[in-house]
# Entry
Amino acid sequence: MSFPKDFLWGAASAAAQVEGGWDEDGRTPSIWDILYEGHTKHNNSPREACDSYHKWREDIALMKEIGLKSYRFSISWSRVIPQEGIVNPKGVKFYSDFVDGLLEAGIEPMITLYHWDLPMWAYEKGGWESDISEDFRFFAKVMTEALSDRAKWWITFNEPQVFVGACFTLGNGAPFKKLDENGIGKVSRHVMLAHGKAVMAIREAAKQPVKVGFAQAAKCFTPWGPSEEEIEEARYHTMDGYVTVRGNIWWTDPMVLGQAPDSLKPHLQAGDLEIIHQPLDFFGFNCYQSLNYTESYKFNPPTPRGLPLTAMNWRISPEVLYWIARFFYERYKLPMVITENGMANLDFVMMDGKVHDPQRCDFIIRYLAGVKKAVEEGIPILGYQYWSIMDNYEWAEGYDPRFGIIFVDYENDYKRYLKDSAYTYAEIIRQNGENLPEASAAAFNYI
Ligand code: BGC
# Structure
């Protein structure tokens, strides 16, 4: 068994990271547009990003050239709901035209409602520290009414582990605050309620059968060897042994199984789990690296010397997609979409006018080999979205890290260049993954 014919080969982005046009056509600011000041590398702001708000037709043409079957993007909440309860028709039209453009190019839209750009108006009434789940439900309803006649794939939240688990504990993302345990519990509850209500709103307003899910930040430890004990040890540390707001099951157990881990229970109220636990059509996850090599975690024998690194100093660990798909499927039994995977590289336009990124070409092949193995074992993976379609605003890291398969020259009218990796990926898509190597040959650690 190999990749299904309708496998969603895609790439991903997020509104705040690519759109720009931050104050155009009735849009009001998000927390990132305002609060970035003093917190980001070179004080970079997301206000202009990649100018996709103006260049979206060109972007879709490039996606078509690569042969993408799907594109995951997010909606800027404050572009469509610029004030509490007020819909901005121009904002809605932007996304409606965008969806039409994708479909004309034969690309399936995959919509994320929340990729961290909370409207300032919602922040001013308390943000996620207060219960704004009804506002989120309204946003979900408006977008579903506008787009679900054409868009089938819906994602409520991107990585609560990061925008709650990291941003509110380390204070390294907007709103750049650190909360205590109770504060984190409260924010988690509000986000989970908003997820549940959005799923209900999408189902109620949908104009055709839709696929609803989320995009979790997958935290995965991989086995150091083939024995059952080693596999069980990695599974344990990935799931039941890692129960904090930054781990997996704090979020996915309540959302998928309707069960709260003990440490979350004190923060929930009667009736919450019924709202949070909604039937889902797929389990989306973002995954970049195995945690085996991150020394702050307990489960790591000494890190092998000289393992390959990305420009974010993340370990290249291709075995991780196989293992996390397997561990998630064993526990949650939902079909899966890999909603993000990719690497930052030190790309630039070379003397021949092209962007050669052999590390990324190799990265994509290696990681996808693990996905292929999972598919061959019968694990239902419906799609893979490379992060990112183009270089973009990497939050507190500003514009330095380049994750794209399309290079963006920010200082020269945001000119786009297809990198070599775009062609590598295009060929994999064309062959529906048949040209990928054996996983065991592609991995650095045990697979
Ligand atoms: C996020 C993206 C981010 C990427 C690379 C994910 O955590 O969803 O917004 O750019 O990782 O850091």
About this structure: Residues 14, 17, 158-159, 162, 217, 286, 340, 387, 394, 403 surround beta-D-glucopyranose (CB under 6 Å).
